[in-house]
Design a protein that fits this description.
homotetramer, 369 residues, alpha/beta, 13 helices, 8 strands
């Protein structure tokens, strides 16, 4: 069975063991002909991989892992036991009292670097956001993938397709469950509506998020730096104590303002500015940003997973991406190899990731097994 | 002064007289260097023109009349007396009791044809939606432009940049003020979030809108007919008794699914399907749609204002556009000339409109004087 | 057999009779699974249709009738009897003595209007340009399609994929065979290399072409009017007595400079400037061109066949396109209906053409039977 | 004077000294307001820099160093003394006898790696190709930039805008002058016309070129691997003993077929296949190509100069680009730093190059002083 072999080829000296899920298999609530369940020949255990896609895989702008967000029933979390969830009361959907929240402005801030998982949004079979599995999700990322930071309500998480209420509840749950376990919980609060984006920023501050990120408006697109800054500034000023990240993803937004230009003088406009999620293949822009802003200590997190090694070569601090949900362990090994530096070994890991993504690209859909 | 001359050139035998506003000039709440106030030499009266742009003028995909929606303070209505408005209580923001509403399903439906104004969204100086001027707006359209149908919360109205609450209030006000004055009040209820779009559809039905229109999702874009229909169907089914229009505007959404293909069998999926706002230059597609769907009596309203005559030639029923806010009178004359048919005269009107739009395109901004 | 029915549906009261070829069927030199030979049920005669495509059909920029020009063996002329051709000496490939040629500058020039066929380039089975069938081709166009003008070496004719020598020979043969039969023979002389384009322009003048047309350079693209004019001017000045046409086809060249802007003052730069082959869907641009240049009497020939009726509505003089090779007769009937004006009838013809093109678009390849 | 400072900032420990030209300044045959002549403050000597651009600088698809090829008078070679050249007979324009040429198939082939200069095409003031300066050009590249391989008639060299004869003469001159001085002379023989491309391939073989490269046809674009291979194969087979390179530059050609897919089985179709000039930012594609084709020992030369370090990180063999004409020395230092590996130092060089290119991008034109 070719799928099996392709997948096993990805297994570099057996380290994929952490992907094995021994718990009872998830009772999938829907059938999908393109998402076969398969086993490795070696251990006969089921391996579950969820590809959510950053919609940038392969350098194409189109979605390659079609999430079909309009059906709102596609995503499921590794290990989620949906059977138990449905009858439960959805009591979690409350606004957390601010008093209980960690005060992010007090503790010395840890630099955001390494891997950040762009989280998927789990759904119940009836199309509701499934908050009950976030706790499990946190534990899985930390223990199985060694990933301790998350980026919530971004592209992978389909944040733009959720309602404001859904986004708030998800943010609350991640902040709450990530307490003492995660290093950073970044909430993507960008929206087409400025007042809604501001509302989400205030909310993220209130619940104690480690940072907020804002995607550029993409219906009426800003066409120059000033227009873009004007929007970002109005959102950032609603959460002045929360580190602010610009979420740069031109293939999806069509907003191509260069980051090097954007950063010039940005601290005067947005004092809380902290860095960029850089999901573009313009590495000249990234390199110049890194070089010019050393004094500012901005954080540059690369968002095109399959090119991460190339971004590291020019000095990226880390990465935000969907693949770190399930390839976080392997990518951490690549980061270690790069740090030595052992470029040949790092390249092997990058090749494996690329091979896997190529496989997924050809499959053209969600792999779930 | 060249601006003056260009504008006067548009005046075909003096019919622009209806644009003259004799009331005290609007106290503009902001300065804009590119929006000069100018007078005609003939009568020394101030002429006020608001160009809101369909973002399709000139066949380019980029906005030519930059609305800068992020500032939320740009648009102002012809004749709005902003001075009076600010102190007033915003008591209008209530949900209208359904009992008072016209029952659209009972009265014999009037065909949607002729001109439909894509309404702008008036704002107060402090960035709130200005509901108080909608009544005036309705009267102006009917009496000055002879336009009796409106398309609310679309691209021109910046619907996608408003919050759900703002969209609801605007819809309510248009339906309420349009009662007994307007023939059709179509509410654009499309949104990136399916539940929000459904909520808006239910709301539009509850307040008695004549129709709803839905733009295709444009962040995660549907890539084939089935995906698009699946989304539209879920919205339409929330307002099953309200005529449904698909809002086709590929230059802004990037969704290029051909309408001819979309319409094939659509009544089985969306029984309330009634027509298309067709904002594309693919006139082959439009012609085939019109030809094939005669039996269905769908309504095809063209949305590229400067090419309307070309769309009429192949059988379009009417037009939805921003220019009908201020060039409705002239365009109605074009429709009459076309109906005779006096193509040479119709062409003259289309040329004038084109000349005017070209002028605006070169200006590249909102003209407000 | 559905193909049959679809084709017959195009037959409006039997006028397609002129497409029936009674001569022995062409022995196709290659097999093509997607190019089925079919018969009408009514008369059991073979009908031969060659779709060459303007690569604009359907409003898409991609080729829909894949010509596969790299194989150089695809096109064949209606009625060509290839069996007879191969053994013949290729004696025609000589430069015609200038003395024999019609002196285009002496006779009063006939306005270029109505239909112009964008000719295909016939090839022999071994990949040579088949000059021997041009005579037949001329007779076919005149007698069967009532088309008396041609546009040679354009997109349809794959001029850019031919060598300079091949282009010259084709031009010679069309001018020679068209003498006393055709009204206008326009030679497309644009090339990526300026010296080669100039050479082709001098050659076209020497052989007595009625006009030359030049496509914009499309590798290094001119980005403003001045750059474009500079190139066109240098070509035109090599053939100063020959009417000059700009070949505007932005979907293929990527050169989007508006024609309205281009024409402003063009006579001072290019005294021989005569008109535009306008293959764009920007009808605002076309309308303004027509309106503003009445005094100049420029000729505007529309090049998006399936939208011709819409271009006529705003005043186009005629059309250049590939479909007039085989739908010239029908399109002439549309022109007549439009002239009355009987728009309803004209629309029927446009619908038929559209239906036929849609059929071909779905087939996605050359139809040859 | 800011320009000065920006340029000096590029001077890392004085190594740009080799760019200083002490000979009498070139008498420029045209004025250009955007190409200021400037001096460094340090030595008051004139520095001459020619930016020719790969039209990919900055990751944009548009030309940033506008060559205005239609004027055919822009480029001039560093050190060219145009005064002396004009009156000279153009006796060099002969076809070199094959007997004199190096037999590339006999000597053991040196791997193509490191830096390859994409040569510009020098012109005389009257628009002729200036063959007389090629000898100087070769010496300059070898002695001043330590660059020993060239890529002739590519994008930088405006090969597609030259006539076939001009391309042949240039190729001859480079092969002739490069004998015993250069390691590799690669001739780009791609053309829109297949017969012309084949003719250029035969010619390149006859004169003893080290390799030929072929760009994808970009007017009628191949849309899948088979179409592309079919074209390449027909060119390659005309020069079966000459190493063949595919010139992949999707931003200019619009041909986006992935190289990984193209290479699969390519040796069976094109036995002389040797490698790829890879001018794309799809580093996933590049990485997979490198990884999968180790056994084949294909050569991968990266063509986006400002991202070279990122391509080296994933295993590129070298680079072909326009900047190596004048930044070859510096880029060689980057290659050395990368080989150690001293990534921090390599990054410094890449930053300098990026800074310089950014400067040029903002200037938006040819810098010549």
């Amino acid at each position: 069975m070719p799928l099996q072999n392709r997948f096993e080829a990805l297994d570099l000296a057996g380290e994929v063991g952490e992907d094995v899920v021994e718990s009872p298999p998830m009772r999938s609530h829907r059938k999908r002909q393109l998402a076969p369940r398969f086993q490795t020949t070696s251990d006969k255990k089921e391996i579950r991989v969820i590809i959510v896609g950053d919609f940038l895989l392969g350098g194409t702008e189109g979605p390659i892992c079609k999430l079909d967000p309009h059906h709102r029933e596609l995503c499921s979390l590794p290990g989620a036991q949906i059977r138990d969830i449905t009858p439960q009361p959805r009591a979690l959907n409350r606004l957390l009292p601010t008093a209980d929240l960690p005060d992010s402005s007090m503790t010395p801030r840890k630099k955001l670097q390494g891997l950040v998982a762009a989280t998927i949004t789990p759904m119940t079979p009836d199309g509701q956001v499934n908050l009950l599995v976030i706790r499990q999700y946190v534990d899985y990322l930390v223990s199985k993938q060694n990933v301790k930071s998350v980026f919530v309500n971004g592209t992978t998480g389909e944040g733009l397709s959720l309602s404001i209420q859904e986004r708030k509840r998800l943010a609350e749950e991640w902040v709450c469950q990530g307490k003492d376990k995660l290093d950073h919980v970044i909430i993507q609060v960008g929206a087409l509506s400025l007042p809604e984006s501001q509302e989400l920023a205030r909310h993220a501050a209130a619940i104690g998020a480690s940072g907020i990120a804002v995607i550029a408006p993409f219906f009426f697109k800003p066409t120059n730096k000033d227009e873009l800054i004007a929007f970002l500034e109005k959102v950032a000023s609603e959460a002045p104590a929360v580190p602010f990240y610009y979420y740069h993803i031109p293939p999806l937004t069509g907003v191509k303002i260069r980051i090097e230009e954007l950063l010039d003088g940005i601290k005067e406009r947005i004092p809380s500015f902290q860095g960029v999620k850089f999901s573009s293949t313009d590495l000249l822009d990234l390199a110049q940003c890194i070089n010019k802003n050393k004094r500012e200590q901005f954080e540059f997190l690369y968002g095109v997973d399959e090119q991460l090694l190339s971004a590291l070569a020019i000095g990226a601090d880390g990465a935000v991406g969907s693949t770190y949900n399930y390839l976080g362990g392997k990518t951490n090994l690549m980061l270690q190899a790069f740090a030595k530096p052992d470029l040949a070994l790092a390249r092997k890991y990058q090749f494996l990731t690329g091979e896997f993504l190529n496989f997924v690209i050809k499959l053209g859909t969600v792999v779930s097994s």
